[in-house]
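Final report, closing paragraph on structural work. Over the funding period we assembled a curated collection of sequence-structure pairs, and we close with a single example.
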Amino acid sequence: MTKFISWNIDSLNAALTSDSPRALLSRDVLNTLAREDADIIAIQETKLPATGPAKKHTEALETLFPGYHVEWISSEPPARKGYAGTMILYKEGIQAEKIAPRIGAPSTMDDEGRLLVLDCGGYYFANVYTPNAGDGLGRLGERQEWDKCYAEYISQLDQKKPVIACGDFNVAHKEIDLAHPESNHMSAGFTDEEREGFTNLLAKGFVDTFRYVHGDVKDVYSWWAQRIRTSKINNSGWRIDYFLVSDRIKERVKRSEMIDSGPRQDHTPILLEMEI
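Its predicted structure, as stored:
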């Protein structure tokens, strides 16, 4: 059985080096992930510089996750500094080749370190941090183009061998995937356009593993807004983090669930176990 974890960490630097209350909560989550002993760990929103992890980051990761290789891609000019970024940790013994694709995305999205892929021999493992539509939906049009480019790229991979795709997709697909759908139809992450983009992605031959395993279970989310102090206490959340797999390997999925991140708001890690 192979175990995978995905987590939007919202600043790897802070989680590894800061002693702020939030950073300590993030470090607690990292310790939880270390105990899970996953084979592959995908991290989004690392917010590292273009040069990647510094020595202090590398040493901290080696302490937390001994025996793992680390691959990363960061935001680089002309994109913003210290923005977005993805990373994958995978156990020594796994034979994998790093791919950092450019998918023809609009604006600076291909330069923001949003998509990192491992060719693991028998399958592809894709880690994505999907762009947010932004305040006032100012980036919605570009986000729609990203969704099309990403879906086409992942579909091309799937034509070669099965795909496990994970990350922060920044969309609650259906009304059951957020606590208050009635008041969020014009909110970033729940517009008709973003939801349609995710539907189109699944239609290319992929399965939302959480729904595959759990059906229409309610009130299970992966993200709670930091700016609302009671969002997690009241479970007023969204499910915007996913593990998708190629339809032809869905029967191999054994577990797909959230990992408890304690009192920390924002994203919680998600877990997939399958025979691969």
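The chain has one domain: 2-274. The first strand starts at residue 2 and ends at 8. We thank the funder for supporting this effort.
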